[in-house]
Amino acid sequence: MIIKDLRLAVDHSAAQLQKKIEKAGGIRNAKWRILRRAIDARKQPVCYCYTVEAVPQGEPFEERKPLEIPRSRLKQRPIIIGCGPAGLFAALILAKAGANPLLLERGKPVDQRRADIEKFQREGVFEPDSNVQFGEGGAGTFSDGKLTTGIHDPLCREILETFVSFGAPDTILYEAKPHIGTDLLQNVIRKMRQEILALGGEIHFNEPMRKLLIENGKIIGVVGNETYPAEQVILAIGHSARDTFEMLLEEQIPLQPKAFSVGARIEHPQPLINQAQYGEDARYLGAADYKLSWHTPEGRGVYTFCMCPGGEVIAAAGEAGGVCTNGMSYHARAGENANSALLVGITPADYGTHHPLAGMHFQRRLERAAYEYCGGYRAPAQRLEDFMLGRKTTAFGAVQPSYRPAVVPADLAELLPAFAVDAMRQAIPVFDRRLKGFALPDAVLTAPETRSSSPITILRDRQTLQSEIQGLYPCGEGAGYAGGIMSAAADGVKCALSILRIDR
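Above: the chain sequence. Below: its structure as tokens.
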């Protein structure tokens, strides 16, 4: 029996939940499991809202039918380019099918990658192929490990259970806003790699794809550090592989510019967010998050994205000579600041050209301008009150910027597009009415945030998931078909299954 909408106080006991379940289901001594738990903070008092499955003692729960993976009949091993969630899940499915996939990753294994990122944050020493954007696990590994998604796909449960099987906390199976945390996710990724290898897969780190080999409209191989024959290639390159996008354009792979967003990260004291969301119940609920959106009268969308409770703003450059930001938090979310992207939507009409890589060039200009302004990989930052009044910041107040290696007090209106600055200034008072304290004068904006999603779509067929080049499967966030860990992983699974169903 599925029982929905069970509401209990945030400090309830397990016995109180048991009693509520038995009363609602009419089952004495019920056996139960949580299917979903959400916090309802729309009005006071804040409460937990549960969906559970309950059965009499001795009866089994309904079990989910496992994903059916066809046994491989491929003549050659498939090749996967990129070791982010799309690439890893594609590799795992193909390895389980006995296809012995080869995965090429330009970056390093997660432990070495972590050391390079820490050195960059500490000393400003940038590694072009080992950073927040590139390396084992992809960009999401050094964010928050958020598993929230807007897609409603049966594969989501498969992906969550896979994460749990590799060491993620089982709470992600039922929390309404599941997250793993950067610290725990690194170990999960390491175990996924070990499983892929144990099943016959092969992973080459420090090996970028240099060229696709195409003959008569078909994939015949890939050039990395050496040449590998292949009839199927999954392009899970991530949203920041700019040199790869340029190479694809040269090889006449169909690309088109895509809408994305730009803005800054905004930091508040985490206790302020807790109080605004939960009031007196905050002491029971840990670090609170938020999600806000609004459209200007001109129709420009402004929204918060990738909110990191108790986290920090991080240096997310993926290319030498550019500055960009992202957010990160650990599983405990115990940091003193909350941060979120504050973004403004842009479309290809804003790029000023119809070039397929126009959005990428737009990103690059913003990131290089910030680098030149700060004289390196420090990031421009501004107090929120100064941003609203149009004056350069000279000193920070109660909220200290968390970005490393350091920030430079700035006037962000000199660096961000005028339309974005105007939209953000219009939205902030609106958001403050919805979330008390959002317009805190000492809140900090650190810019630019430019990597919310890919600025490019690599075109593919809706049914086969192939490009017009037979055997080429554009996949995941970098190809324009996902927006986060869950949707990227799901797209990786779909591309792998599409390959395995060839000629069946």
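The longest strand covers residues 30-40.
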